[in-house]
C-alpha cells in the first residue's frame, strides 16, 4: 500500500516504484536521473524509476539476433470447427487444475473425385468419419473450404 506524500513521490513498502518526475527536482538530480532513468533512495535502497520523455530515453541494448516467429498451425479442425476443450485435471486428493483437451488432428491424403487427385488435409478423426459418410465435396462445401487451393 503506497501513500502519496508530495506530488510525484510515492512512499510505501514496495521494491520498485514508478512515477513521473516532479518539476521541483534540483538540476544536479535531474542530470543524474536523465542519464540513469532511476533514482536510488538513500534511506532504504529502493530503486525509484519514472517515465522519461521519448527524447531523453537511452537506446535499449538489443541482442544482434532477434527471435524469428514461425507460423504455428492452429489446433482447430477446418471442417467441423472443433477446438480444444478446457477441462479440470482431478488428482487423487480431488485437487482440480485446468488443462486443455486437444482435438485429434491428423494429416491425411484424401482422394478428391472432382479434382481427380489426392488432397493433403489436416482434419479431425470426426471429420474423417463425416467425409467417409457424406463425401469430400459435400463436407468441404458445407464448411466453405475451396479444395482447389489445398
Describe the structure in your own words.
There is one protein chain. The chain is built from three helices and nine strands. Residues 29-34 have low confidence and may be disordered. Helix 2 (125-134) crosses helix 3 (136-143). The two termini are 58 Å apart. With 150 residues, the protein is of the alpha+beta class. Strand 1 (3-6) and strand 2 form a beta hairpin. It has helices at 27-36, 125-134, 136-143; strands at residues 3-6, 9-11, 16-19, 38-40, 47-50, 85-90, 96-101, 105-112, 117-124. The strands form four sheets. It has a three-stranded mixed β-sheet with strand order 3-5-4.
| Gyration radius, in Å | 30 Å
- Main β sheet profile: 3 strands, mixed
Helical proportion, percent range: 10-25%
Number of helices: 3
Task: Please name the defining characteristics of this protein.
alpha+beta; 150 residues; 31% strand; 19% helix; 3-stranded mixed β-sheet; two-stranded antiparallel ribbon
TL;DR?
The protein has 150 residues and is of the alpha+beta class. It is built from 3 helices and 9 strands. Strand 6 and strand 7 form a beta hairpin.
Give me the secondary-structure topology:
Elements: E1 3-6, E2 9-11, E3 16-19, H1 27-36, E4 38-40, E5 47-50, E6 85-90, E7 96-101, E8 105-112, E9 117-124, H2 125-134, H3 136-143
Parallel strand pairs: 3-5
Antiparallel strand pairs: 1-2, 4-5, 6-7, 8-9
